Amino acid sequence: MNIIHRSTAFFEKLVKIVGGPGVRRNVLLFCKENGHVRISIARSFATIRGKTPLKGRRGVTAIGAGIITAGIGIGVFLPNSRKAQCASKQIEYQAGSVKPGLPEYTHNDVIGHKTKDAKIWVTYKNGVYDITEFVGEHPGGDKILMAAGGALEPFWDLYAVHKEAGILKMLEHYRIGNYKDIGRHLEKDRSDPFANDPERHPALKPASEKPFNAETPLEILSDSFVTPNSLFFVRNHLPVPIVDGKSYKLGIVVPGKKQVELSLDDLKKRFKKHTIVATLQCAGNRRTEMAKVKTVKGLMWGIGAISNAEWGGVWLRDLLMYAGMDESDAQTAHIQFEGFDKDPTGSTYGASVPVDIAMNPYRDVLVAYEMNGTEIPIDHGYPVRVIVPGVVGARNVKWLSRIIVSHEESQSHWQQNDYKGFSPSVDWRNVDFSKAKSIQDYPLQSAICSPKDGDQLEAGTDEITVKGYAWSGGGRGIIRVDISIDDGQTWLTADLEQIPQKVNHAWAWTLWKVDVPLPENFKGKVDIICKAVDESYGAQPDTVRGIWNLRGLLNNAWHHVNVEVSEE
Predict the structure, then answer these.
(1) Which residues are catalytic?
(2) What does 248-296 look like in DSSP terms, one character per residue?
(3) What count of other Cβ atoms lies within 10 Å of the Cβ of residue 260?
(4) Is the CA virtual torsion 326, 329, 331, 333 positive or negative?
(5) Burial group, residue 525, by CB count within 10 angstroms (0-12, 13-18, 19+)
(6) What is the pLDDT of residue 143?
(7) Most exposed among 83, 174, 394, 401, judged by the fewest C-beta atoms under 10 Å?
(8) Using omega within 30 degrees of 0 as the cis cutoff, is the peptide bond preceding 443 cis?
(9) In angstroms, how far is the first alpha carbon of the chain from the final one?
(10) What's the pLDDT score for residue 189?
(11) Please, what's the b/e burial string for 471-496 (b: 16 or more CB within 10 A of its CB; e: otherwise)?
(12) Which own/partner pairs from 430-435 qualify as long-range (CB within 8 Å, at least 24 positions apart)?
């Protein structure tokens, strides 16, 4: 169990804001172990200036406790009295509300403050806060910097225990103004085809701006089994369309039948709702590693072009049967999907999957209108998208406009001339996309999220906590993740965090964690390797070179992270 100890100065500031010197407080120490939050509590202490305020940890049941940080943190244990409860409600109501007399700041004002040199600002509801002084004392380390220049809400929704009286009161101590642009649409250049794109959280790691594509922060990937909507990785091929949910119509085309059109209300009221937890991964995830072998074309994705969410909607199979599809028709081979997003010529984004996937009742293909219990955000396909679990992200068409039953694949560029795999010997001089099979089910994948590549570890470190994700397409669950620090000579087996999933229905990823011991008094570089095994005992290739391809797709080689233990 790893506990973060903070300086006496931090506790002095905390008690000054929340209570005052001499007031008895219990300090909660939170840690995350094997995916479950466990709580310890320090012995009560009469003064903050004591030399050993964190001695005597013991297990307790904590009520009304708060955490200051995102993730692991320290908070104040408030008395469980009616007076304290009333104070908590009052502070929670006041925190983030408009305060007359304070300066007003816009979105552009806030987003310009992401570094200590420029000052670090964040927003919470209607408030703007300068937390520059607090960053160095933050018990959760640099995780707080993910919110720099943006909103705290996505992180506090993830770590909901932040929303306690002591924490909210402390936040208000750093208040500098009111947030002018909350809930407002910013003025944009309407001649720009990307003018309709929504605002994004600054913690996302952009791979391109137009069209916008971005990775989920690594800290969130390994900390949250379900990725928050605002931090879910974004993959857009074209400008984001604006689709009116009230007038929305989904067309379903079946040969020999009249086209069926369904509104969003039709989907919600006339068909049974189903939910699945499913991971989406871009085919180009980990492309940067392939680019180190030889030049590839495509966005330079790291390991964050993957996320996991709960999706709600209607089985695709139910809609196709409703529209009159004949399952016995031997001519039907593919189900095509078209989006509302268009290129300058008016061509829409499109993709298709084989009918054996689309109509298979065990493949759980969903026409989704909810993401993590809310309407799907604009960036992720509002009002409706298709979710084909276990299949490469490119086939999960967003802003779904039409479903077409066909004898052939989608003829879109992205189905015919992209998202196909080739031999390492094929280059742009001899490539023939027409002879390659379209990617459907994703191969076995795993990656290390923590520590990050290039991290410097403190001198005297004798153990490294390694965390990451693993996932395999086609519904194949993960049965093992192995970690090595001696170039694969010996391996440790990680603890797995999973939800119950049926065999061949494992649409959601697996998070994993392992504590790796280092040799005594170790100093220098460590190459950490991970690899996974799925239910079919599929294995990952050990090198990138053997699977290199000109588009840099489907890199699922053993993942390496290099860190260094500092000298004294």
Answers:
(1) 138, 162, 235, 282, 419
(2) -EEEEE-TTSPPEEEEHHHHHHSS--EEEEEEEE-TTTTHHHHHHHS--
(3) 18
(4) positive
(5) exposed
(6) 72
(7) 83
(8) no
(9) 24
(10) 64
(11) bbbbbbbbbbbbbbbeeeeebeebeb
(12) 431/550
Q: With beta carbons less than 8 A apart as the criterion, state whether 237 and 193 touch.
A: no
Say yes or no to pLDDT of 424 above 80. yes
Rounded to whole angstroms, how far apart are CA atoms 556 and 442?
10
CA distance 211 to 547: 28
pLDDT band at 134 (very low <50, low <70, confident <90, very high): confident
| CA distances for 58 relative to 26, 27, 413, angstroms | 12, 11, 61
Q: Which residues contact 315 (CB under 8 A, 6 or more apart)?
A: 271, 272, 274, 361, 364, 365, 366, 367
Rounded percentage of the chain residues whose pLDDT exceeds 70: 80
CB atoms within 10 A of CB 348: 18
Whether the bond between 383 and the residue before it is cis, its omega within 30 degrees of 0, is: yes
List the strands of the sheet with 463-471, edge to edge: 445-450, 463-471, 510-517, 495-497
Looking at residue 196, what is its pLDDT? 86
Give the whole-angstrom CA distance, residue 529 versus residue 490.
Answer: 11
297, pLDDT greater than 80: yes
Task: Check residue 143 and report its DSSP letter.
Answer: G
Give the integer Cα–Cα distance in Å for 100 and 177: 9
Q: What is the pLDDT of residue 187?
A: 55
* pTM for the model: 0.77
pLDDT mean across residues, the chain: 84
* Residue 157 token pair: 């929704």
DSSP-derived 3-state class of residue 144: helix
